[in-house]
């Protein structure tokens, strides 16, 4: 093989290697440092610089340099019409300047500032994916002899690869910045919802407390009116609770505070049979619990939210005087909760969709039932955070059964 062919093959292999690194580096700073290192290496130059066009001011700025990029150098604009880099960008052509002191466009200020002496420059334009010139890649001071046509070709290929890689890295950084901003906004929204709903809850519990008390004392004629007030207050409480519960969903498992809990005890302590809303609708609520304990590893408060959401729906979607049956049972390695009602039921094709955020079977315009369509979505996300499952079975006009399955604690060590 001829010496030139071997050299070409080696160069091609090096280019392939470089292209791989460029494609896999998404950190802009590291990418730029790599580009100028290989630019100097491939063209046998003392140093290299990388300048990008600022789209607003239409001036070039140094983004990387073999000489350490001082803040002063990074902040000094390089005007398009009075610089060598500017001429390269405007002409959109590679350019060799053998002796910069002979070029009227040469501005020695940067050299003075960083105590470097530029003598020769080979510069090529950088392009974005749309072939627009977005910057300039320069090799400075050829080590032996003069920059050759081969150097021009090599640097131009490198610039083409670099331009696309830089654009990609810039987009990724922009996305990351936008993402961080969005997360911050989302956090603000979540904080606002948490604070607002918390503040609303306190006066509401006073109202609920007094109405329940008055209802107990009331004569039969006023009971109906007080039931209306009670129902409205309970509705408000449920809406506020949904808003509050989002804090668990949005922060994922990080906000969970799990411990070993007897699931049977949890449901027993919720005093479901005395639920205000069910009383107001004169519904019968039965609870069937097993004798044995069913230990599960859960955040108790969070799981109470799940049970309440299912119970509230059963009450809401079951007519006055209806029946609701809650049962807890061991099924294999799981603790099961079943919430059954003899209410309006759910069409079979909607049984999966009801667990999506904001989904409601009734159209918003013809809505008879109150709610935001969040209760089941929250319940599903919370159950899944506990490695559990939730689903429903139903028949229209007959009623629905909602199931929650949670893994039982098996390990003896766990339960000690
Ligand atoms: P919301 O109750 O606020 O509308 P959910 O996410 O709790 O929101 O429920 C979503 C939808 O699922 C409800 O709007 C209703 O159409 C249906 N649904 C939920 N539970 C029942 C139930 N027990 N009986 C009949 N339909 C139900």
Element layout with pairings:
Blueprint lengths: L2 H22 L3 H15 L2 E10 L4 E7 L5 H5 L8 H8 L3 E3 L11 H6 L6 E7 L5 E10 L6 H69 L2 H32 L7 E4 H7 L6 H5 L3 E5 L6 E4 L1 H17 L6 E9 L2 E8 L33 H11 L3 E7 L3 E9 L9
Parallel strand pairs: 7-9
Antiparallel strand pairs: 1-2, 1-5, 3-4, 4-5, 6-8, 9-10, 10-12, 11-12
Helix pairs in contact: 1-6, 2-6, 6-7, 7-10, 7-11, 10-11
Please explain how this structure is put together.
This protein has a five-stranded antiparallel sheet, with helices on both faces. Strands 7-9-10-12-11 form a five-stranded mixed sheet. Helix 7 (220-251) packs across helix 10 (300-316) and helix 7 packs across helix 11. A hairpin with a 5-residue loop joins strand 4 (121-127) and strand 5 (133-142). Helix content is 47%, strand content 20%. The protein has 416 residues and is of the alpha+beta class. The longest helix has 69 residues, at 149-217. The mean pLDDT is 90. Adenosine-5'-diphosphate binds at residues 309, 313-314, 317, 341, 343-346, 354, 359-362, 371-377, 400.
């Amino acid at each position: 093989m001829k010496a030139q062919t071997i050299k070409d093959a080696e160069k091609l292999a090096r280019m392939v290697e470089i292209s791989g690194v460029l494609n896999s580096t998404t950190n802009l700073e590291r990418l730029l440092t790599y580009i100028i290192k290989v630019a100097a290496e491939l063209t046998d130059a003392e140093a290299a610089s990388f300048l990008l066009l600022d789209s607003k001011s239409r001036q070039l700025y140094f983004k990387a340099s073999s000489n350490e990029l001082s803040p002063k150098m990074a902040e000094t604009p390089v005007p398009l019409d009075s610089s060598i880099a500017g001429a390269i960008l405007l002409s959109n052509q590679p350019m060799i300047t053998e002796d910069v002191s002979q070029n009227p466009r040469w501005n020695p200020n940067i050299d003075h500032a960083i105590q470097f002496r530029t003598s020769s420059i080979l510069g090529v334009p950088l392009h974005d994916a749309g072939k627009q010139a977005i910057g300039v890649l320069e090799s400075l001071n050829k080590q032996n002899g003069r920059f050759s046509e081969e150097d021009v070709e090599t640097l131009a290929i490198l610039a083409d690869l670099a331009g696309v890689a830089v654009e990609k890295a810039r987009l990724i950084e922009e996305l990351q910045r936008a993402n961080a901003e969005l997360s911050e906004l989302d956090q603000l929204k979540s904080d606002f919802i948490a604070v607002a709903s918390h503040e609303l809850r306190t006066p509401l519990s006073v109202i609920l407390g007094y109405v329940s008390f008055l209802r107990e004392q009331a004569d039969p004629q006023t009971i109906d009116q007080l039931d209306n007030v009670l129902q409205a207050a309970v509705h408000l409480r449920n809406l506020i609770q949904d808003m509050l519960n989002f804090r668990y969903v949005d922060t994922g498992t990080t906000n969970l505070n799990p411990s070993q809990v007897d699931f049977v005890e949890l449901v027993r302590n919720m005093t479901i049979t005395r639920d205000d809303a069910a009383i107001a609708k004169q519904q019968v609520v039965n609870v069937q619990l097993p004798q044995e304990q069913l230990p599960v590893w859960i955040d108790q408060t969070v799981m109470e939210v799940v049970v309440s959401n299912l119970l509230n729906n059963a009450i809401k979607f079951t007519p006055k005087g209806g029946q609701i049956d809650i049962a807890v049972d061991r099924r294999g390695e799981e603790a099961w909760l079943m919430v059954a009602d003899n209410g309006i039921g759910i069409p079979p094709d909607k049984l999966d969709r009801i667990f999506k955020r904001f989904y409601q079977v009734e159209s918003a315009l013809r809505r008879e039932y109150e709610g935001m369509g969040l209760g089941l979505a929250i319940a599903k996300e919370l159950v899944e955070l506990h490695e559990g499952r939730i689903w429903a079975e139903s028949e229209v006009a007959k009623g629905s059964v909602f199931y929650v399955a949670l893994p039982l604690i098996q390990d003896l060590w766990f339960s000690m």
